[in-house]
Amino acid sequence: MDFALKDKTVLVTGASGGIGRALAESFLEEGARVALQGHTQFDAMQHWLAKKSADQRDRSLCLRGDLSNSDDCDQIVATISETWGRLDVCIANAGHWPPDDIPLHAMDPQRMRRTLEVNLLGSAWTARAFLKLLASTGPRDDGHGASLIFVGSTAGRYGERHHADYATAKAGLTGLMATLKHEIVDIDPFGRVNCIEPGWTVTHKARPDLLEAESLQRVLATMPLRQLGRATDIARTALYLASPTLARHVTGQTLVVAGGMEGRMRWQPGQVDENAVKQRLAQDEAPGLSRPP
Asked: Given a cut of 90, is residue 236 above it in pLDDT?
């Protein structure tokens, strides 16, 4: 399938992680020029790229930066412009999920601020830098509109207990996307903004925890498709949304890639006292009132 991405210029933030790495690899395979942003795992990202083919290395650019700093975002995009002249696709994928389970009332304000800075503001500053460059270069003359893609999370849709900071940040991407779909067309009449919400996705980092029997039972309990997502599932969705031909009329949309997930399990088997529930139901039935049919 031709995604019409050959020779397009693509920025993938968070390219050192599992999903980011799959995104970078998929776009390189489609013949695009890919700028890979990394921060704390920058050296690992460079080491991974060094193993790719000479052709793919020639079409790649490794850039270090802290996306919570808007100046770093501007510099990254400026370097892409200086190297390749323009930027056609921007994928704001970088993010951080704090592993410690902490309810909001016990959460350090610094954790909340940092999570918002990395996951929400980092995506906003990335989008801002991208749109500034697009306003400077103007749209392509072939009618292939620019594409901005946010990588969110089902945590922003369903919430995630003890991770209010992360859920809040990812939920904010929906409002950002809905706004920017209107703003991008003022710069590029065919420009599009969309969002991908992955569910439980196996990456190198998450694999050990997700493949434990107890974790599998928990995360698959609300999925019609009883399988875990893979980073390549997210990357293929991004290829579609970035395509100026296949997704030319798709904007302002959130594609959930989560096996049909309908929410998160609140209670584990054995945690619901059926007798107590029935007793409460009997107490709630007021005398003289008939039960609804």
From this structure: yes
